[in-house]
């Protein structure tokens, strides 16, 4: 009975250590008011300037003057957009005619009192408005991600949600948008918190063992219980770290690498997919030297398509470096597309050079290009030979980039392959950022260190678990680690 309570007391004390202190709360109230342009700078119909912090009332009083139907009234109503004139704080001159809205703390994006000033998006209006704002006491321009950072510091969102907000802003395709939304909703947050909770519960059990020393009959049972819990957590994390669970492809996109012998039509394929002359196409073998990247939207996925140098032995220094890079790109690809020239295969007796063959697996899409340049009567036969030259099961699509044969099937086919291979039903990947991966790898090392210890090393074992829990806390930002926070928020734009 007493033991049981002691266990819980410890859990509570560990939690207490890691939650935001009251001191921090007080610091929040006395900080500067920040402002920034929330829309992109430039000529446009409307620009939004956001202002957040303790001086928002003064800002409103000084520069917002109601006109239209609300003329003369100066009450600030939560979340109500009003017509107004914006005044220069220094000389009272009307600098623009606009709209303004006030959000009362804590019901705002940052959780602080916030106002938004909607003005005409003009360089002159904005520079006057900004200099007017910075002239006000306690008011300064926001740093990158500072609005979101305040939402984080107030506990409205965790670090994974802040990162997902950034992903949402960066998103260009449907898949990216959907995954960013999941993150914003807290899908990852909940799962990382559950992992940390497991580590903390195991830690509590182990600490109870320390408290009650050796020779107790409960010792064995409690130790086994902690080990079981840690083993399960370890397996869970190891699963998420496995190569099949790469959630980064949803947010950052997946990489498609085009490879093959020189002159097969690799650059022509890239240009076809990109619908522009992204790469140089010439009849000279060895035209492409370096890896060229173009980001495309294929069926809602962000796909970084890479064109590479044709794979062949070369005595040219530049070309051989290109060939080496091409090989590395293929090895690191999420999807490899091999372009072969059918007439060339016919000419060399369907020998696929080893430099290329070694990269062709069932996971590779093989394109037999230039079908326009072979005798149509023999096409079927040549395709059969080509199939025999490649590993069984390799998808093989005959095409002519020049004449257009098979090109719409190619686009649909690529979309199908991507959907089929990377779509996740049910078993949803967790890791969508390299940062999360690094923390989980570190967690795994601490859990392994724990599992290598015996009950006689219970003090050391508790230490390993404490490190593991701390590492998991860094993912969500439950423990503020300044360098982690700085790294996350510096990726934001000003005004977010
Ligand atoms: N005009 C405008 N549009 C915008 C934003 C904004 O700041 N201003 N946003 C900014 O990026 C996004 C919306 N995000 C928001 C997230 C939370 C809250 C907010 O006030 N949350 C409080 C209260 C909720 C409520 O009153 O219903 C909370 O969650 O406690 C506001 C906006 C996109 N559109
Ligand atoms: N007949 C025919 N020629 C093609 C076809 N596609 C590309 N070509 C030609 O093949 C030559 C090589 O095309 P590229 O796209 O530069 O080939 P690559 O594989 O990138 O070549 P490297 O840069 O040498 O690796 C060019 O002259 C293209 O016009 C096709 O479908 N049919
Ligand atoms: K100021």
UniProtKB/TrEMBL annotation:
Record's GO cellular component terms: mitochondrion
Record family assignment: Belongs to the TRAFAC class TrmE-Era-EngA-EngB-Septin-like GTPase superfamily. TrmE GTPase family.
Organism: Dacryopinax primogenitus (strain DJM 731) (Brown rot fungus)
Listed GO MF terms: GTP binding; GTPase activity
One Pfam family cited in the UniProt record for this chain: MMR_HSR1
Keywords: GTP-binding, Hydrolase, Nucleotide-binding, tRNA processing
Domain GTP-binding protein TrmE N-terminal: 33-156
GO process terms (BP): tRNA methylation; tRNA wobble uridine modification
MnmE helical domain location: 159-493
Residue ranges of every copy of the G domain listed in the record: 256-354
Protein name: p-loop containing nucleoside triphosphate hydrolase protein
SUPFAM superfamilies from the UniProt entry: P-loop containing nucleoside triphosphate hydrolases (SSF52540), TrmE connector domain (SSF116878)
């Amino acid at each position: 009975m007493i033991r049981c309570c002691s266990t819980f007391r410890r859990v509570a004390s560990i939690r207490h250590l890691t939650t935001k202190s009251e001191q921090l709360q007080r610091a929040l109230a006395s900080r500067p008011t920040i402002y920034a342009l929330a829309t992109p700078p430039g000529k446009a119909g409307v620009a939004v300037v956001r202002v957040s912090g303790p001086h928002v009332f003064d800002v409103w009083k000084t520069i917002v003057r109601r006109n239209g139907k609300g003329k003369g009234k100066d009450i600030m109503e939560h979340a109500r957009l009003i017509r107004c004139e914006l005044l220069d704080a220094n000389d009272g001159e009307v600098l623009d005619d606009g709209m303004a809205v006030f959000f009362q703390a804590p019901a705002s994006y940052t959780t602080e009192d916030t106002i938004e000033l909607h003005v005409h998006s003009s360089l002159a209006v904005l520079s006057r408005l900004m200099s007017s704002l910075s002239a006000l006491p306690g008011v300064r321009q926001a740093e990158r991600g500072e609005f979101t950072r305040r939402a984080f510091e107030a506990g409205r969102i965790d670090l994974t949600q802040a990162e997902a907000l950034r992903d949402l802003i960066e998103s260009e395709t449907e898949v990216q948008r959907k995954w960013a939304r999941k993150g914003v909703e807290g899908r990852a947050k909940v799962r990382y918190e559950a992992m940390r909770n497991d580590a903390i519960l195991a830690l509590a059990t182990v600490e109870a063992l320390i408290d009650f020393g050796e020779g107790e009959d409960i010792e064995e049972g409690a130790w086994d219980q902690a080990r079981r819990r840690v083993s399960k957590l370890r397996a869970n994390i190891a699963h998420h770290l496995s190569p099949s669970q790469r959630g980064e492809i949803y947010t950052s996109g997946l990489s498609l690498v085009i490879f093959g012998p020189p002159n097969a039509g690799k650059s022509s394929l890239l240009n076809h997919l990109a619908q522009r002359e992204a790469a140089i196409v010439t009849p000279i073998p060895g035209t492409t030297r370096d890896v060229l990247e173009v980001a495309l939207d294929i069926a809602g996925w962000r796909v970084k398509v890479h064109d590479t140098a044709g794979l062949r032995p070369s005595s040219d220094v530049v070309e051989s470096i290109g060939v080496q890079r091409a090989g590395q790109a293929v090895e690191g690809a999420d999807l490899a597309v091999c372009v072969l020239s059918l007439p060339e295969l016919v000419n060399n007796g369907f020998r696929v050079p080893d430099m290329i063959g070694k990269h062709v697996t069932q996971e590779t899409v093989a394109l037999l290009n230039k079908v326009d340049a072979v005798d149509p009567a023999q096409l079927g036969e040549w395709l059969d030979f080509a199939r025999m030259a490649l590993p069984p099961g390799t998808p093989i699509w005959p095409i002519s980039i020049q004449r257009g044969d098979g090109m719409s099937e190619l686009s649909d086919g690529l979309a199908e392959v991507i959907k089929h291979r990377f779509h996740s039903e049910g078993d949803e990947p967790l890791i969508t950022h390299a940062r999360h991966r690094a923390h989980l790898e570190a967690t795994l090392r601490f859990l392994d260190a724990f599992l290598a210890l015996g009950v006689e090393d219970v003090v050391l074992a508790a230490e390993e678990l404490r490190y593991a829990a701390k590492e998991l806390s860094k993912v969500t930002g439950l423990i503020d680690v300044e360098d982690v926070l700085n790294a996350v928020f510096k990726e934001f734009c000003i005004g977010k």
